[in-house]
Design goal:
161 residues, mainly beta, seven-stranded parallel β-sheet, 46% strand
Length: 161
């Protein structure tokens, strides 16, 4: 028996002239969120939350005013940026950089070709634990944030402390 997976596909037609998702302020979707390739930076005024994975094709990045959260992994051909935290039940991979106002948490890997910043919140001074970059493995240049490596084989997602 095959179980159908719900999928939300975001295309150019759903973006306004500035690249914001026009259908709603935030997305909280029970399933996989996929952003079509070659859209540049796709922006969300609020949060982007998917119960499964969030995937942005080559030439597309993700920027949320609040947080980005996925039950599985988050992957973008471009960069990944959130005003608050970024959290994934599996890994976080970006073609460019990863930037968060608060912590970046993943179960397995946080990976980018360029730079990683956590705790760049401008509305208040973040607590030390809110600058955490936590995963089993971190690949990329950590420019700001405190790296905490999880032991290999960690079964539980890297939940906030």
């Amino acid at each position: 028996m095959e179980i159908a997976m719900e999928k939300l596909l975001i295309t150019k037609e759903q973006l306004d002239a500035q690249g914001y998702y026009a259908a709603s302020h935030s997305i909280e979707f029970a399933g996989q969120v996929e952003i079509a390739p070659a859209l540049g930076c796709v922006k969300f005024r609020g949060s982007l939350i998917g119960s499964m994975s969030i995937f942005a094709g080559a030439g597309s990045g993700i920027k949320a005013g609040w947080r980005i959260e996925a039950g599985d992994g988050i992957e973008a051909g471009g960069g990944i940026e959130a005003g608050d935290g970024i959290e994934a039940g599996d890994g976080i991979k970006a073609g460019w950089g990863i930037k968060a106002g608060l912590q970046i948490l993943a179960k397995t890997i946080i990976s980018t070709k360029l730079r990683i910043f956590a705790g760049l919140c401008l509305r208040r001074v973040p607590k030390l634990e809110e600058t955490t970059i936590r995963a089993q493995r971190v690949e990329g240049t950590v420019c700001y944030g405190k790296v905490e490596l999880l032991p290999a084989g960690t079964q539980k997602a890297a939940a906030r402390k």
